[in-house]
Design brief:
- The N and C termini lie far apart (about 90 Å).
- The chain is about 30% helix and about 30% strand.
- The radius of gyration is 28 Å and the shape is elongated.
- The protein is an alpha+beta fold.
- The strands form 3 sheets. Strands 4-3-8-9 form a 4-stranded antiparallel beta sheet, with no helix packed on it.
- A hairpin with a 4-residue loop joins strand 3 and strand 4.
- It folds into 2 domains: about 120 residues, no CATH class; about 50 residues.
Length: about 220
């Protein structure tokens, strides 16, 4: 019983510690990296999340540059092309996800395998073409192309009067209000339809009654 109590207290402490770490504005990076040094980008955009705290050192290096070419973030990372199942299985590509605290002047990402540059990409942020390009744009970096009511892969759960379709149920209070309003509208329409049907049926009934009385 005491052990169960200790586990429960420990769980609560861990949960409170996790909640205490608030989400920040981050540069969200998701890359598929292949053994032959080719790279596919899943997304590279500004979001809200908890920054990646720990990375394992390895032969690969992620570098973020400012508009003047100054290095603003630089980390070596380990990329594994093996899943340690029993027995271990090789994989290709390897998925790398990083959440890096965002700085306004981040303009380019470089990825090196040892000293070889294998990937370089401008951090676009916003191109103002009227299309929310979810690989590179979000509401946080480009509200003109990615307004709150459009899917961009980022949940903004503020009470701003707009339901963000990227939020899970219950996360955005505006979605609950929207659902209530939609249900209210549906009930109103249903009530009007029922009232029209009853009125039509009553009218038909009266006409038949008058017709049978005339005979």
């Amino acid at each position: 019983m005491k052990n169960e109590m200790k586990k429960a207290v420990l769980f609560i402490l861990v949960l409170l510690a996790a909640q205490a770490v608030q989400a920040e504005k981050v540069l969200s990076i998701s890359l598929n990296i292949y053994k032959n040094d080719s790279v596919d980008v899943n997304y590279l955009k500004v979001g809200e999340n908890r920054p990646t705290r720990y990375v394992v050192d390895g032969d690969y290096r992620v570098q973020l540059l400012s508009s003047t070419g100054e290095v603003v973030w630089n980390k070596t990372i380990q990329i594994m092309f093996m899943v340690f199942t029993d027995p271990p299985e090789p994989i290709d590509p390897s998925l790398v996800n990083l959440e890096i605290k965002y700085e306004q002047d981040m303009r380019r990402i470089n990825l090196y395998n040892k000293d070889k540059l294998i990937y370089s990409q401008e951090i676009k942020g916003c191109n103002l073409n009227g299309v929310c390009e979810t690989k590179y744009e979000s509401y946080l970096s480009c509200p003109a192309d990615c307004p709150l009511d459009r899917k961009d892969g980022i949940c903004i759960k503020n009470g701003d009067g707009i339901c963000d379709p990227d939020c899970l149920p219950g996360a955005d209070p505006d979605c609950a209000k929207k659902e209530q309003d939609e249900r209210g509208t549906q009930y109103l329409i249903s009530g009007l339809v029922i009232a029209v049907v009853i009125a039509a049926a009553f009218s038909v009934y009266n006409r038949r009654k008058k017709g049978s009385g005339a005979e």
